[in-house]
Amino acid sequence: MHAHTALPYDQTAETEWSNIVLATPEVCRATLDSLMGRDAEKLASYFYQHMLGHPQARSFLTADAVQQRLHQSMTRWLRSIFHHPMDDAAGIVAHQRLVGEVHARIQLPVHLVSRGARLLKHHLRLALAQEFDDAQIRAQATAYAEGLIDLALELMSVSYERNSQREARTDEAYRLFAIGQNVGVERERQRAVLMEWANEVMVALHCKSAASLPPLRKSEFGMWFHHKAIAMFEGDMEVEQILDIIERIDNVVLPLLRPRDGARGAVERVSDLQDEIDNLKFLLSTLFERNLEAENGRDALTRLFSRRFLPSVVSREINVSQKRNTGFALILLDLDHFKQVNDTHGHEGGDLVLQQASALLLSSVRNGDFVFRYGGEELLVMLVEVTAESARRIAELIRSKFESTPFSLAQGHSVSVTASIGVAMFDGHPDHQYLIKRADAAMYEAKQSGRNRVVMAR
Amino acid sequence: MHAHTALPYDQTAETEWSNIVLATPEVCRATLDSLMGRDAEKLASYFYQHMLGHPQARSFLTADAVQQRLHQSMTRWLRSIFHHPMDDAAGIVAHQRLVGEVHARIQLPVHLVSRGARLLKHHLRLALAQEFDDAQIRAQATAYAEGLIDLALELMSVSYERNSQREARTDEAYRLFAIGQNVGVERERQRAVLMEWANEVMVALHCKSAASLPPLRKSEFGMWFHHKAIAMFEGDMEVEQILDIIERIDNVVLPLLRPRDGARGAVERVSDLQDEIDNLKFLLSTLFERNLEAENGRDALTRLFSRRFLPSVVSREINVSQKRNTGFALILLDLDHFKQVNDTHGHEGGDLVLQQASALLLSSVRNGDFVFRYGGEELLVMLVEVTAESARRIAELIRSKFESTPFSLAQGHSVSVTASIGVAMFDGHPDHQYLIKRADAAMYEAKQSGRNRVVMAR
Q1: Which residues from chain B sit within 8 angstroms of residue A154, using beta carbons?
Q2: Which chain A residues have a beta carbon less than 8 Å from that of B227?
Q3: Between residues 233 and 292 of chain A, which touch chain B (CB distance below 8 Å)?
Q4: Record: contact A172-B169, CB cut-off 8 A
Q5: Do A320 and A427 share a domain, yes or no?
Q6: How far A292 CA lies from chain B's nearest CA (Å)?
């Protein structure tokens, strides 16, 4: 495949590349070419020294083999950019994109690459000051070197971002897939392998000849937790707690039960082990249960979308709206005096009202609209393909439905609940958070100015 | 919260910022400050003119309101960077991170920002050439301006990447959530609303007084498809086909049936409409079915993990391995002469062998290991926490199990199938693709050197 026949953007990049080169006097180009022939290795060494000073970068460079290999590719890269940069602009452009793909695979983020490039540019500036007496030429050579490096980084960044976003999505899909694989069965299975290990320890304790107790870390449970559960429950605080307990069992509890030096163990410490195992079981079941709930994306009480996916849904609608030039609106609705409902009729009463309010909203919108539970007594509707006029009309309709609908409570009682409503039309601002804030401010104004009313956001 | 008390990296950034400023003579700093006071608006205009020439950037800047607002923030940003840059380095650093977060929310990628910055730096270089006669000072001022801009971009990039990856993950979670909401019910429901619309059209056709036929685009089906299905089925080619059909129905088929100018429609064209509706139904059911299959992440025949999540799983293990200094291995296994099995015993025979081969592998590994169907007759095992020695031993064990196990076919027949096996130990190279390639090359060598053997990758 020829890079020539790719996207228009690539053509732009090649033209840009050529333009930078052509705008530079031959003497500058030749000097940089020979400078790189001589100094590229030294520059690559500076680069890695500098990167090793950065904690996140260091993790990419620990293995000697990697460091050596990357040092070589860095040297080659520096030379390739400045060696006959006009011969194959398309090839150079394509190569930068490839580098970006590799960076995405090894998760080397753009900002670390930029950081390294800043250092390179600094050293190049110093080196070029030595090369030229003429200040004008020196400035041109510097601009040339920095221009090519910046453009190369930009090209890497294009493919890095595309690929790293794709990989982030696949990672998330994998995580959800791993959780979704029949969680009930998985929970019981892992509890079972944990208990098998515990049983093994107890048997070994009774069998005086066994040299040492089997470490939890190396058990089936330990292996599962370190290599599979960590991915499933990424970001949950119980993960670290479980890792700590595993370490404590292996390094503190087991050695006390059966010291390695053959001394008599403190068998009365068996209850310590049982306590740790109980903690493990508790944390594990918390993890499984939380993830069962959180992943379903719906609010348990109202069955509306939970707030979690609101940014995704609104961002997507902003894109649709920009592309197709259709309007959309957010309607943020807060139940008036909801605290009184809870105080007078108990939380069960409040819950009943929320469920009926949600049903009322769902019945007021279309197949393409979205309804979220935004907060405690705040509900949010996204109306797609509406004008400000119809958004206001629909909001007003919702308000009057609330006003006229008695909400049923237990034992044949009922209660009136009005709603304060803020409406924000999408105004072209690409930040979803900004739009939500506008709806929120309008709703606040509706509250302040007496409740049970609709306010359009400015 | 004080930015001072944040991560070590921030302190580094603040120190870097201060170092760039302190290394620059006061005259350069003062000149840039007053240059920005005078020219920042002009520079911001150049910036947006340039960005409008880029197709992807243009989509962020269409709305006048946005362009005006961003122009203002760009002007402010330029001034803030060069105005007393030592007074509050921590504040400046924190602000750049905030800008990166906003860019992530509006999905303005780093490479577009860098592109704009390249242009800014170019214009600044020209402007500074006018300001200073002394070449030395001019070079220092240029290095200063570019240094601060580069560092600011790098800081934006840090928070951009973190946030945009998080958002990509949430988007994917939302997509899977949207698909997972009882697909069977959803499929029937959307087919029903499509048929409701078709029915409405037919009724309107018979009722001569109705002015025009209801467009599909604005029907419940059209709304659902444009605002919900597009997110669920992102990237599937049927989506574009369905969008085309909806457009064709509304713009070609319906106007022929009932022209807007009141002329008599070609009622005999009803069959065209039915054909398009049949196409829609077919594409829709293809979409639902493909997504049901693809999302489950398992190979339908062997119930092993499908290849889809291999990059996620291996990347993650690379991270674990680097962090905890444990080895892991990939075992890539190809069934020997599998084509003969298929030719002699039919595809059913081949399928049976693959299923038994998968079961054999699953029974040979531990709770923390992974088994994938890598290709047609290629299976891949990831062994966690192993040395090269034990990886070779396990591979050899698998090879000998294959050699000694007769694979059952229909009607009491059986067949012998051996395996060629390549084993690659993780060697510190952070690219998962590189590791897979090494396992692949070793497996190829096992094939070439006579099959039914284990080769360790170099």
Answers
A1: 111, 114-115, 118
A2: 317, 320, 368-370, 384-385
A3: none
A4: yes
A5: yes
A6: 13
pLDDT band at B70 (very low <50, low <70, confident <90, very high): confident
Mean pLDDT over A439-457 rounds to 97
Q: Does A56 touch chain B (CB under 8 A)?
A: yes
B138–A136: do the CB atoms touch at under 8 Å? no
B128 and B238 housed in the same domain: no
Instruction: Decide which of B147, B176, B205 is a domain's last residue.
Output: B176
Q: Answer yes or no: do A147 and B118 touch at CB < 8 A.
A: yes
CATH number at residue A369: 3.30.70.270
In chain B, whose CA is at the least distance from the CA of A312?
Answer: B171
Contacts of B367 in chain A (CB under 8 A): 193, 220-221, 223-224, 228
Q: How far apart, in Å, are the Cα atoms of A67 and each of A54, A74, A123, A182, B326?
A: 15, 10, 20, 43, 19
Binned at pLDDT 50, 70 and 90, residue A7 comes out as very low
Q: Share the mean pLDDT of chain B.
A: 87
Same domain, A159 and A278: no
Distance from CA of B174 to the nearest CA of A (A): 6
Q: What is the average pLDDT score of chain A?
A: 87
Please identify, among B294, B317, B338, the residue that sits at the C-terminal boundary of a domain: B294
3-state SS of chain B? CCHHHCCHHHHHHHHHHHHHHHCCCHHHHHHHHHHHHHHHHHHHHHHHHHHHCCHHHHCCCCCHHHHHHHHHHHHHHHHHHHCCCCCCHHHHHHHHHHHHHHHHHCCCCHHHHHHHHHHHHHHHHHHHHHHCCCHHHHHHHHHHHHHHHHHHHHHHHHHHHHHHHHHHHHHHHHHHHHHHCCHHHHHHHHHHHHHHHHHHHHHHHHCCCCCCCCCHHHCHHHHHHHHHHHHHCCCCHHHHHHHHHHHHHHHHHHHHHCCCCCCCCCHHHHHHHHHHHHHHHHHHHHHHHHHHHHCCCECCCCCCECHHHHHHHHHHHHHHHHHHCCCEEEEEEEECCHHHHHHHHHHHHHHHHHHHHHHHHHCCCCCCCEEEECCCCEEEEEEECCCHHHHHHHHHHHHHHHHHCEEECHHHCEEECCEEEEEEECCCCCCHHHHHHHHHHHHHHHHHCCCCCEEECC
Task: Provide the residue range defining the domain that includes B172.
Answer: 3-176
pLDDT digits (tens, 9 = 90+) for B425-442: 999 888 899 999 999 999
Q: pLDDT tens digits, residue range B143-179?
A: 999 999 999 999 999 999 999 988 888 888 887 777 7
Give a yes or no: residue B302 inside a domain.
no
Same domain, B92 and B27: yes
Split into its structural domains, chain A has a count of 3
Do B107 and B215 fall within a single domain?
no
Residues A237 and A339 in one domain: no
> Cβ of A313 and B54 within 8 Å?
no
Q: Alpha-carbon distance A168 to B334, whole Å? A: 30
Q: pLDDT per residue over B227-272, tens digit each?
A: 888 888 887 899 999 999 999 999 999 988 877 666 666 777 888 8
B171: closest chain A residue by CA: A312
User: Which of A166-170, B40-44, B447-451 ranks highest by mean pLDDT?
Assistant: B447-451
User: Is B174 touching A (CB cutoff 8 A)?
Assistant: yes
Question: Do residues A262 and A364 share a domain?
Answer: no
Q: Per-residue pLDDT tens for A290-341?
A: 776 555 678 888 889 888 889 989 998 998 888 888 899 999 999 999 999 9
Instruction: Give chain B positions within 8 Å (CB) of A436.
Output: none
Same domain for A287 and A337: no
- ipTM, 2 dp: 0.79
Cβ B368–A226 below 8 Å, yes or no? yes
| Domain presence at residue B300 | no
